[in-house]
Specification:
Pfam families: Hexapep. By secondary structure, the chain is α/β, with parallel strands linked by helices. The chain has helices at residues 145-168, 192-195, and strands at 2-3, 11-12, 17-18, 23-30, 35-36, 41-51, 56-57, 62-64, 71-73, 78-79, 84-86, 89-90, 95-96, 101-102, 107-108, 113-114, 119-120, 125-126, 130-133, 138-142.
């Protein structure tokens, strides 16, 4: 669902997909090949929220800010299930882990990875290519080329997902039994550990 607020109507590029069970409100600008999952709330009632091309905001995420602030999620930023971005800016090709909280005026550097359930305090500046975990968040090492390659491949799946949703997603009545000819799904992505096993 998209909602206008005080005359601001969200702008969503036609190649992006906003799930009908997500809520996008007000001064939101969504670029190309973005995916917004069900339960996500992107609320730009008090400031502007920009999602550059290729960003994904997964299920049950919240993006909001204090009045007078505007934020940007740069190209290919990847926001995992249940994360909260409140008044923070996300760098290019970064990953925000599931159920993390990124607070006001924080900045996540390009190609950084924030681990699941990490709490990034307000005004924290995370340098590019940092691996960040904990509560409060702490940089524990630099992101390797292998790690960023794995992250980039995962984000590419989400950049393909809008087209797949436009083409195949539809509301249906459930089946009452598993069909005998139900196909198996392809293995298209592995965990970081499995991806680089020798």
């Amino acid at each position: 669902m998209t909602y206008s607020f005080k005359g601001f109507i969200p702008v969503v590029h036609e190649s992006s997909f906003v799930h009908p069970l997500a809520a996008v409100t007000g001064n939101v600008i969504i670029g190309k090949q973005c995916y917004i999952g069900p339960g996500a709330a992107i609320r730009a009632d008090w400031g502007q929220i920009i999602l550059e091309d290729g960003v994904n905001v997964q299920e049950n995420c919240t993006i909001h800010m204090f009045p007078g602030k505007s934020i940007t999620l740069k190209e290919s930023a990847h926001v995992g299930h249940g994360a909260i971005i409140h008044g923070a800016n996300l760098g290019r090709n970064c990953l925000i882990g599931m159920n993390s909280v990124i607070m006001d005026d924080a900045e996540i550097g390009d190609e950084s990875i924030v681990g699941a359930m990490t709490f990034v305090k307000a005004e924290t500046k995370i340098p590019k290519r940092s691996l960040v975990v904990g509560n409060p968040a702490k940089v524990i090492k630099q992101v390797s080329d292998e790690m960023i390659a794995w992250k980039t491949k995962g984000t590419a799946l989400y950049q393909q997902l809008p087209a797949d949703c436009h083409e195949t997603l539809k509301e249906v009545e459930p089946l009452r039994a598993v069909p005998k000819d139900r196909p198996a799904q392809d293995e298209v992505y592995k965990t970081l550990r499995d991806a680089f096993k020798k």
